[in-house]
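Fill in residues.
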């Protein structure tokens, strides 16, 4: 069974930082490009960062320079370090593989206050 367990969200003031974690089942983690997605109310889910099994990364323009995606293969865990947070970063953040089909975990809420 696929495991996608996000954690680390919370409420933070603008300019602050959060570090999200996602524990991923090995069967998914080892062979897939993985990504962090976010979805705000009334908005489309967007891919904000991705990382390949070889740790090549890519970022949405909206988070480039502020967020860093990483992975720890030994722990089957990926991370999203979020710095200089803005209110527009407020969303539920999800971890998933980038390729289809996708199944979604519960996500973790990030709320950035002004």
């Amino acid at each position: 069974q696929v495991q996608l367990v996000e954690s680390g969200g919370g409420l933070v003031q603008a300019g602050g930082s959060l570090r999200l974690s996602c524990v991923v089942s090995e069967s998914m983690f080892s062979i897939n490009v993985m990504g962090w997605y976010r979805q705000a109310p009334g908005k489309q889910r967007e891919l904000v960062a991705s990382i390949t099994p070889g740790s090549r990364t890519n970022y949405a323009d909206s988070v480039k320079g502020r967020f860093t995606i990483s992975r720890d293969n030994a722990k089957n865990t990926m991370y999203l370090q979020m710095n200089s947070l803005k209110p527009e970063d407020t969303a539920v953040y999800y971890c998933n593989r980038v390729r289809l089909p996708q199944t979604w975990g519960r996500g973790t809420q990030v709320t950035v206050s002004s």
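DSSP finds one helix and ten strands in the chain.
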